[in-house]
């Protein structure tokens, strides 16, 4: 067993750390032993654990946990990017969320992380042409997590959604790598147009709580959108915008706003 764990740690340090933390969690709180064993320790890989967790959360009387688990297993087996993105998301949450002290927490407890992973499977289904099943994933994510992400939206790696309640991301939205956003963010359209109608969020962007970014506009890399802002026009890279409607109020203030999570405007 020790040799197996060493091999896992060498090949997959994120999963190895989650397993160590799971063992510690069981030792510290035996009442969670069953949950932690079923969710983490019972599984040989992070992909199997993700499949279990997603299917458990999304199952209902219309779609069984077993069927959903088979769908997720197929997705992870077919597209390695899904689990690579999940690992990057776990690290992002751990590094940016001061309430996250272990890699274990997002997988077990954080609905923002869980919803993003369910979206990723739904997006894979969408790309495979299985549109109705993708819509089922979207519907259940909205019902279970309070997060509505269209399965056609494109979202990069290293995503952190803090608190995560009432997130809406539209069909033609694009979100780059290493983006952080807080609750009640909307990446939406402005009317009934059917073509490309949603925002394009660059890498390293920080989007504050309650911000609305509307229309087919570009938000440049490493920019900041202040909480409660309504963004209707393009945002250049490395700038801070605030207000209704949002206007440029200064520089972003750091190289990676999404990592520093600094939302104070400081007199800009």
From TrEMBL:
Keywords: Acyltransferase, Transferase. One of its GO terms (molecular function) is serine O-acetyltransferase activity. Residues 14-118 form the Serine acetyltransferase N-terminal domain. Pfam families: Hexapep (PF00132), SATase_N (PF06426). InterPro entries: Hexapep, Hexapep_transf_CS, LbH_SAT, Ser_AcTrfase_N, Ser_O-AcTrfase, Serine_acetyltransferase. This is Serine acetyltransferase. It comes from Thalassococcus arenae. The gene is cysE.
